[in-house]
User: What shape does this take?
Amino acid sequence: MEENVKDTVKQILTDYLQANKHRKTPERYAILDTIYSINGHFDIEALYHIMEDKGQFRVSRATLYNTIILLIDANLVIKHQFGNSSQFERAYNNENHHHMICMQCGKVTELQNDELLKAINDSKLNKFHPYHYSLYIYGICNKCSLAKRRKNKQINYREK
Ligand SMILES: [Zn+2]
Ligand SMILES: [Zn+2]
Assistant: This one.
């Protein structure tokens, strides 16, 4: 992620914290910086380990969770619900994309489709100003369907 994007989101966070009379703690900025270094989606657990590896800040899972709620409110983070798991991704300068979710292993793959983007951008939304949207396509990934086919073959073989 380019440095100017990080500067911009830092400024958005500063304005948000000031406007809402929240404290400007270094932890909040460190978490924001880490999130904007991640490509794609993450859950709290993954973020916790990335923060731990960086070793700059010892932040609890509760702090991470509370900060993420704050960042969602500041329009800096998007929350996704993929099946049973809550995942997050950065919101600013993250081009709208779609998500394919495997119902078997839960793997999430991002999908860019310009025609869909255009169709949604061209839609006339009555008395409504859009910020972002999500499209989830549920199905079975290649790896899982291959594993399933193999398993079926084995069962057939045993029955003979
Ligand atoms: Zn799968
Ligand atoms: Zn995504």
